[in-house]
Structure formats: C-alpha cells, structure tokens
Write a structure and sequence with these properties.
elongated, two-stranded parallel ribbon, mainly alpha, two-stranded antiparallel sheet
C-alpha cells in the first residue's frame, strides 16, 4: 500500500480575486457574519462568466476551501479573517506573502492540514529536480513512482494553482517550473513539524529529551498512520508534537504566522552552538565542520575531554543517533565484556556472513540483510559481528 496523497483542494482557480472578495465582505460588515450570511453576500459579488450567480452549495464548498487555506477564519458562530489579511488589504504585503502566511498559520501552526505541507513540498521537489518543464500528468506520475503516492480520481487537484499563487511554481507552455527553488524548499521544510522532529531525533538520538516519551510515541503513531495511507483523525496524534515544539505565544496568538520554537528547543540549539565554539577554541586541530550533526550529548563529551587526542577518540565513536560512544557509556564498568565460550564455534555460514559484513567488495561495508530460515542462528551471527565491531 502506498501513501495517500492529501485530499484535493476545491475552487482554487481565481484564488486572488476570490480571496479579495471574501476578505472585503468580512471587513466591510458592520457585524459578525455567519457562514450562511457570507454565502448570501458572496452571491451578489462572485458570478460566473455568463453573469449568473453561483449556487449556495457551490459557494459553500468554495468557502470551506478558503477556510481550509486560512484566507478566512472560522469561529464558533461567525467568519472573520486573520490580521495579516488586513496587511494585504493595506498593501503592506503582496498576495503571495499573504497566502503563504495563511497556509502556514492554518496548516502548520494550528495543525489543520500538516499532510498538505508535505504534499506541497514533494510536488516542489519533483519539479525542482526535473531537467525540463513538467506537465501535470508527469508530476502525478513522478509522485507515484518516486514518492510512493496513491491518488483518488481527483489526483492533485488544486495543488498546482495553489503553488502558482504562492509564487513557488510557474506554468509555461511546456509545463511547470520552479521560480525560487531554494527559498521554497526551505520554507516548506521549516513548516513541516513532523520533518523537524525527524531531524531532531536523528541528530539527538531516540533517548533525547526534549521531546518527551509521549511526544515520541504519538509522533511514531502519526508516521505509521500516514505511511499506511491514513488521513483524518490521525492528525490529532501530531498535535502532541506540534504543541510541544511551538512556543505557547504562537499557538495562542492568531495574528502571528511565524514558526517560533519553544524555549527548550531554542536553548538546546544554543547549547550545541556554544559547545561547538568551546571545542574549536580548545582544540586547534578540530574544525567546526567535523562537529556538524553531532548530538548535544556527544558535543558535551568531546568538550569535556582532557586533551585533543582524547577529544578525537570520542569524536571517532560518535555520530547522529545511537553511536559507539553511546553504547560504551551504557556498559556497567564492573561487567565483563561479552565473549563466546571457548568451546563454541560458529557454523561455516555464520563465519562467512560475519566476515562478509565488514567487506566492501561489490557493496558498502557494514550494510546488508541476512536471509536465513527461522532458528538457523542469525542472532548468534549478529552477536559475532557486534563483538568484532566493538574490538575494531
């Protein structure tokens, strides 16, 4: 089973003019408008190309999309707009910036549609890495073959025009091209809360704190549901991580579209920077580039080294995630090292497999899969590999 692409976006065409219409109606009202009242007022402003009015049902679907985009803000019993809509109306920001603020606020900060952020990023990556402009059908095909997506009959409806309005893509006669590749790759990645946590845990390791065990648990469930094609209620699992990662002031201040991390994550980032500076100041032979990607714990161990030789030895045993150094620290000092009994001998296939694990002929060393029938001795073979690795 592949990953289900996020649900289609209905009524994205004429995005700027429709956004202008809805925002004008809301801001011009002398009282709070319900959704039904907004629909009735929009009927007299939004018309078809032949001059006829849209149906109530059609406008209801469109307004639902513009609430989903963050252009409109839905309260308990009324429709309003975010403060950055006023900035757009007063020409303090252009429409593309307003729309990005709306999407980021609604989809990422409020967590209403995190899968949409990932969908936009994956589309952008497909077009960004293409050697020539891509038509819509080719984008759909590459999302399926390269990213493992599955689609309903609507495909990627609404996403390409949305990205055009954001300024991320441009439509040409031959297909779509990116406009500012690096800028939008960074924007979309920064707004992907799940990806931010994946990078954090990759660097700091599974035992890192923050985040809490509850955040890690819910984040793992969210990824499993998403990768198995689930959409809908599973997004609530990401709320635990989102509320932990973002500063409380951002979550409660609906006027802001800035992604500000909680103090505990900022403090740990600053701690890593200070440790890197301390290490490079103390040890002339260690360049800051050698410290890139190391966890706070690993940097602290290197900084505490008594000399550069010891620092380099610690560095050699560290890395992102669970490292050799981490394993060493988990071993009780009074426990004898593990060894096989003197009379024990590996089977011929176990010895061959263990030896081949460290070879690089034809494939990368220390990578591979041992495919053997149940009960043949894969665990014993793995213990031999681990024992040799620790001796290296």
């Amino acid at each position: 089973m592949g990953i289900r692409f996020p649900p289609p976006l209905f009524g994205i065409n004429n995005t700027e003019s429709r956004s202008q219409c809805f925002v004008n109606i809301v801001e011009a009202a002398d009282q709070k408008l319900s959704k039904d009242e907004l629909i009735e007022r929009a009927k007299s402003v939004l018309t078809k190309s032949d001059g006829n009015s849209y149906s109530t049902q059609y406008l209801r679907r469109i307004i639902h999309t513009y609430i989903q985009l963050g252009v409109l803000k839905e309260g308990d019993d009324h429709i309003s707009v975010y403060e950055f809509a006023t900035d757009w109306q007063e020409t303090k920001i252009d429409f593309a910036e307003f729309l990005w603020s709306a999407v980021k606020r609604k989809w990422a900060i409020e967590g209403a549609f995190p899968d949409g952020i990932k969908g936009l990023y994956d589309i952008h990556q497909v077009v960004k890495h293409a050697e020539s402009p891509l038509p819509r059908a080719e984008i759909l095909h590459l999302l399926e073959t390269d990213h493992g997506y599955e689609f309903n009959t609507e495909g990627i409806r609404g996403y390409l025009p949305l990205m055009e309005n954001l300024g991320a893509l441009e439509s040409t006669e031959r297909g779509y091209v990116t406009t500012a590749p690096s800028r939008f790759s960074e924007r979309l990645r920064n707004a992907d809360i799940c990806w931010q946590f994946e990078q954090w845990l990759k660097r700091e390791g599974a035992n890192a704190s923050p985040p809490s065990d509850r955040v890690k648990r819910d984040l793992g469930k969210y990824v499993m549901y998403r990768e198995c094609g689930g959409h809908g209620r599973h997004r609530m699992l990401l709320d635990t991580a989102r509320e932990d990662y973002l500063d409380d002031s951002i979550l409660t201040d609906s006027a802001s579209a800035q992604l500000r991390r909680a103090d505990k994550y900022i403090e740990q980032r600053n701690c890593r920077r200070e440790l890197r500076d301390e290490i490079t100041d103390r040890f002339d032979g260690i360049d800051s580039r050698l410290l890139s990607g190391l966890s706070t714990t690993a940097l602290g161990q290197i900084a505490a080294a008594s000399n550069e030789e010891e620092a380099r030895r610690i560095k050699a045993g560290t890395g992102s995630g669970l490292s050799w150094r981490d394993l060493e620290l988990k071993v009780p000092v009074n426990r004898d090292a593990y060894t096989f009994p003197d009379s024990f001998e590996l089977y011929e296939w176990q010895r061959e497999a263990a030896d081949r694990w460290f070879e690089s002929t034809g494939s990368q060393s220390e990578h591979g899969i041992a495919q053997v029938i149940t009960g043949a001795g894969k665990t014993v073979m793995a213990l031999e590999v681990l024992q040799e690795w620790l001796k290296a």
